[in-house]
Amino acid sequence: MKNTRAILMLLVALVAGVAAVVSASRWLVQQSSGSVKQVVVAANDLNLGQPLNGGQLRMVSWPAGSVPPGAFTDLKALEGRVVRTSLQRGEPILDAKLAPVGTKGGLSAVINDGKRAITVRVNDVVGVAGFALPGNYVDVIVNTNEEAKTSQNSSISKIVLEKILVLAVAQQVSRDETQPKVVNAVTLEVTPDQAEKLDVARSVGTLSLVLRNQMDVADISTGGATKGTLLGKAPEAPPKVVTKTETRTVVKTRTVAAAPARGNCIGVLAGMQGGVECF
User: Fold this and answer.
1) Per-residue model confidence as pLDDT tens digits over 183-212
2) Which residues contact 212 (CB under 8 A, 6 or more apart)?
3) To 5 degrees, how large is the angle CA 264–CA 270–CA 272?
4) What is the C-alpha to C-alpha distance for residues 144 and 203, in angstroms, rounded to an integer?
5) Which 3 state secondary structure label does DSSP give 6?
6) 185-190 and 205-212: which strand pairing?
7) Residues 70 and 99 in one domain
8) Whole-prediction pTM value?
9) Are residues 147 and 94 in the same domain?
10) Domain edge (last residue) among 166, 191, 217
């Protein structure tokens, strides 16, 4: 009897333990499923301007409390979208890193609103020895003789554009590269007004690029550099002295002695000679 009672209590405890385990497992599953979300990430490295398709994306579980704003949970919503920045494998696809819906792939997809892309010819010196890479900012200097043809300092160098974004070097648009590349063309992102200035600058003189710190946003106003400001101003020539020549006209006048006033006159006859005497 006592053994039967002990066995019965053991069975009850075993059933209660199994029920507790099952309940705890269900609770953990519910908690884990509610604390994660399926997020779309890059299946491999993606380059700037590259269109997306299903083979380049995959779904992963992401903690619900730390899902980045703008993340996608549907692969179909990303079909055909264009990447505006380079993405690494496993990086979440965010709306802020994509071009607007309907944008085609290529360099045009990465040009900001209101901006334009213009390409200038460079060499290893003008291109800052290849250190002007996509994503860097440069200033543009023009050297020309057009501004002072008649002066002694006929050559002038002047910064005409500041803080210009480099979109591409040759046909390379990736911003992940850090090694310098010597190329013969650089594509810059400018406003329409800046595009006009740059086009005039390259037609009247030679261009040079000046690499600047990406965090430096200060505007600098310079007067340009000439031969005079570089070597010191040449001594000024003494002013010319203008001598005025006065022309005098001398008018000669002939003075005629006035005849004495005539009074009473008489004729005098002395021998063979005669005369007149007045008084």
Assistant:
1) 888 899 999 999 999 999 888 888 888 888
2) 137, 138, 139, 163
3) 125
4) 10
5) helix
6) unpaired
7) yes
8) 0.58
9) no
10) 217
